[in-house]
Amino acid sequence: METMTFRHATQKPLAGTRAQAITGVVASGNLEVLLERVLPGDACTIEIATPIEGFGDVWEAVAADFVARAQPGGLRISINDGGARPDTVSLRLLQGARLMEADA
Amino acid sequence: MTGPNSSPIPNRDERNASPTGMSWYEASARQRVAALLDPGTFEEVLGPEQRAMSPHLPLFALPRAFDDGIVVGRGRLDGKAVSVAAQEGRFMGGAFGEVHGAKLVGLLRAARASRPEAVLILFDTGGVRLQEANAGETAIAETMRAIADLRRDGVPVIGLIGGRAGCYGGGGLIAGTCSRLAVSEGGRISVSGPEVIETNKGAEEFDSKDRALVWRTMGGKHRRLTGGADAFCDDTVAAFRTAALDLMGRAPALDLATLEAEQARLEARLARFGDCRDATEIWSRLGIDDPAAVPGLTAQDFDGLVAGLDGMDHDAR
């Protein structure tokens, strides 16, 4: 099991007021993403636990791309991975951000 | 999908247009709970942000889930207070681990104090999680005890079964202790699963690749016809919601009379069907003219068939 944490600064807080959301399921080729609005509006952390070791560079790139696109300021994002491909990870992260953009 | 000659069968977007129209089989545990209950009434206990995860799976380098594969909490069903547990069949086959089981047992025990109008268990499980089998087996036993206590206190426990993992192993045992069960075509109820039987007794005994055999032996229609379930529903959240409300209103007491009636019913069932070699023989002996047509019947036609047979409804389980 490999764990990693990426910390990013964002230009703005994510819209919406929802306090938390979860999307996806830990299944083969899938993952779950838990999002919590608990950080300062200009910060985002992404914590990952994956049983597939040795892909830290890919995770780092996917996380950086997501932060640049969604500007998820204020979110602590936690991932339990079931061996998802990078495109699935991107999709789930964007789904999660969209859920958080709703009003509470 | 959107052409002028598109099929009359509703496509996925149309079926999912309303939350209760969504497929039960395809929905996740969280989607089932949200769509089953009155909108916005669900309050989760030990939600994913609490991170109550398995302490055992990391030993096997296996990924964990923030909710350990089960969603528990309270909400309202048509205004009535209910406690709800929903298993996620896609996480480790919905199997019982230590935390997963403890959440279900805790919900049931708490319901003895809060006395909801019913406890709903949305089964979707292959049984006990092998990586934490002792804790899982204990959880199965504790769950059955908690259900018996709750039913003796007069709170009905309703099982809803229609997920991809079915209801197998210890889940099948727990289902047997519920007040009432609703099952869909895709839901299956048994203890040993098809592959377990084939592994132990050979493909001649039970061919797990023969889907028609699996469904007609363990599937919802057969369980309904042999008294193993009390309602057969379409694969929609709306159908399960209707069934749950109906079954809540006519749950039997758990007392000596019910248990004796169940014992008598099971003895009679064994005497009547014990020598049958296939489910279709049982259906034929029940008085169904065309048993081969049963698997193809719609829920509505199937209900009509059941209504025409004797002894389908009983208060024993």
From TrEMBL, chain A:
Pfam families recorded: ACP
Coiled-coil residue windows: none
Entry keyword annotation includes Cytoplasm: yes
Top-rank taxon, per record: Bacteria
Alphabetical UniProt keywords: Cytoplasm, Phosphoprotein
Statement: the UniProt record of this protein carries the keyword Ribosomal protein: no
Subcellular location: Cytoplasm
HAMAP family: Malonate_deCO2ase_dsu
The name this protein goes by in its record: Malonate decarboxylase acyl carrier protein
Organism of origin: Methylobacterium trifolii
Encoding gene per record: mdcC
UniProtKB/TrEMBL annotation, chain B:
Entry-linked Pfam families: Carboxyl_trans
Native organism taxonomy: Bacteria, Pseudomonadati, Pseudomonadota, Alphaproteobacteria, Hyphomicrobiales
CoA carboxyltransferase N-terminal domain: residues covered: 1-256
Species of origin: Methylobacterium trifolii
InterPro entries, per database record: AcCoA_carboxyl_beta, ClpP/crotonase-like_dom_sf, COA_CT_N, Malonate_beta
PANTHER family: ACETYL-COENZYME A CARBOXYLASE CARBOXYL TRANSFERASE SUBUNIT BETA, CHLOROPLASTIC, MALONATE DECARBOXYLASE BETA SUBUNIT
Ranges for region Disordered: 1-20
Stored NCBIfam families: malonate_beta (TIGR03133), PRK07189.1 (NF005530)
Entry keyword set: Transferase
Protein name: Malonyl-S-ACP:biotin-protein carboxyltransferase MADC
